[in-house]
Amino acid sequence: RTRRRAPEQHIPHGAIIGRLPASGSMMAAEGNAPAGSWFETRPALVPTPRARDWDITVADGPVLATAIHDGHALRPSLRPLMALDDGQRLREEDPLTGLLTDVGDVRIRVPVSRFEVDLNRPRDGAVYARPEDCWGLQLWNAALSAEEVARSLAIWDRFYAMVAELVERLLERWDTLLLLDLHSYNHRRDGADATPADAAGN
Questions:
Q1: What are phi and psi for residue 181, nearest 5 degrees?
Q2: Model confidence over 141-189: pLDDT tens digits?
Q3: 0.85 cut: is pTM over it?
Q4: 31: burial class by Cβ within 10 Å (0-12, 13-18, 19+)?
Q5: Fewer beta carbons below 10 Å: N end or C end of the chain?
Q6: Distance, CA of 96 to CA of 69 (rounded, Å)
Q7: If 0-12 CB within 10 Å is exposed, 13-18 middle and 19+ buried, where does residue 63 land?
Q8: Mapping DSSP to helix (H, G, I), strand (E, B) and coil, where does residue 25 land?
Q9: Residue 72: CB partners within 8 Å, gap ≥ 6?
Q10: Helices assigned H by DSSP within 18-145
């Protein structure tokens, strides 16, 4: 014998929701906190023309990604003094790391070569003057003048003044930030076809 299945009953959603009003305790203000104090609208950060030395993208989020060795550019006054060719410089720069900054909400790519100023070093070591400053490379055809060194250090000063303000502004929006400082690694120090260098000493 086959039993006939009872038809399903469909209860309108409104009938359920109507019987579940929010309680007074759920809707009451917390302590003495004024109503309407939980959210606020903040204007978006926008880089000013002062920041045009760097490629900066700012979106609403707490992740800051930087590629400070991505650049290859040298200012015209340094080019006649540079003893390395483009290929030699590229081996120690971090080309294309700027593409990886897409992981950040806020992204900074530095177009200037680390051989003009190394933003990853303290200020007193940010301009390479001797071979021992940069992996034994003979960098310059002649010693840099005090004026050229000062121009490079001025870039360092501007960059970190900009970053300090950026971090302060972001911390007004977010309690915590995640900074991703992106670099690449040259594991064949003696050329593209050479044996990979010892990782412990490289």
A1: -100, 105
A2: 999 999 999 999 999 999 999 999 999 999 999 999 999 999 998 777 7
A3: no
A4: exposed
A5: N
A6: 9
A7: middle
A8: helix
A9: 86, 89, 90, 93, 95, 111, 113
A10: 24-27, 86-92, 97-100
